[in-house]
Amino acid sequence: MNGWILAAAVELGGAGAAVLWGVATGQPARRVTAQNLATSAVCPALLLLAQGYGRPAYIDLALLLALLGPVGTLVFARLLTEDLEEERPGAWGLTWTAAGVGLAVVVALCVATGPGRALVKLLVIGALLTGGNVIAARALSGGIQGVRGG
What we know:
By secondary structure, the protein is mainly α. It contains six helices and no strands. The chain has one domain.
């Protein structure tokens, strides 16, 4: 086991506990927020595992997850509009923490990777992960016009 795999295990353990707690307890607002956090936690873990095991295919999975994860959260926000109106989730602390962890992982991997096509792919993943997480969290809290009356 190297440092990359250990970092992925620690990151998945901490985020996994928060996601399980959010999904197992609470109203639909907390569950949808936990789904958004799960996407934001698994994507950096896939990047760390790709570096640890030397498998570039995991980076492609992380790219797909960074693209489709926030879209799924937006679909849930749209479908559960009535349920989410009762209780607006306020998870900005979790949102910025997840975005910070994702950016830290992407920066560390960019330094380890060096210039090339893999660096560009990592930068795209970082932008999608951070931007998608913030947009999805804002949609859940009612801040985007047309999604939840924001």
